[in-house]
Design a protein that fits this description.
Number of domains: 2
Distance between the termini: 94 Å
Strand content: 5-15%
């Protein structure tokens, strides 16, 4: 009797896998993996049911492909965002090197270093777009479209009364010049 139990136990151990949390090889979802093939219960059921379940299995596979496609699209979107940030930093560095370290509006001192020890741009707020990046994305990296302002003056330019600022008249001329060139 013990010999039979040992044989049965040996057979059961060989075929079964202790369920564990992981990513299914078929659907790509994080689920309980129930077999040595790395499938979740749903995928294994679809696979085992033969011809009648092929349509269901293909639908399940399409979901997996879509999930992979969407994650790739997200990664491409992040790559584009990183490229945009790098272009921003190139522009900011050019402005930092060519303009003085004082606010163009009130004359307050601005940071004298462009990057910190870790390589990050210090005080991005000091680079103010005359025509906003959202309204005019094609002018985002135009050197003429940037003022170097202290935090308070930048806030005033973005959300306050621009007309009351000293740089308003100068910025109006720059704006008309930029818009004229934009139409060409």
């Amino acid at each position: 009797m013990t010999k039979i139990l040992q044989i049965v136990s040996f057979v059961n151990l060989k075929k079964s896998v202790m369920p564990y949390k992981g990513f299914c090889v078929d659907c790509g979802d994080e689920k309980w993996i129930i077999n040595s093939k790395g499938r979740c219960a749903k995928c294994q059921k679809l696979k085992n049911n033969g011809e009648g379940s092929n349509k269901l299995f293909r639908t399940h596979q399409k979901k997996r492909v879509n999930k992979i496609y969407n994650s790739t699209q997200k990664r491409l979107k992040n790559d584009k965002k990183d490229a945009l940030i790098n272009k921003d930093e190139e522009l900011y560095e050019y402005i930092f090197e060519t303009k003085t370290n004082v606010c163009e509006e009130c004359g307050a001192s601005l940071p004298g270093k462009f990057r910190d020890i870790e390589g990050n741009v210090i005080a991005r707020w000091q680079y103010s777009h005359i025509l906003s990046k959202g309204a005019y994305p094609q002018l985002r990296h135009n050197k003429e479209n940037i003022n170097r302002l202290c935090f308070e003056c930048h806030q005033k330019w973005e959300f306050g009364k621009r007309e009351e600022m000293n740089i308003y008249e100068k910025n109006l001329k720059v704006t008309s010049h930029l818009l004229k060139n934009l139409k060409r």
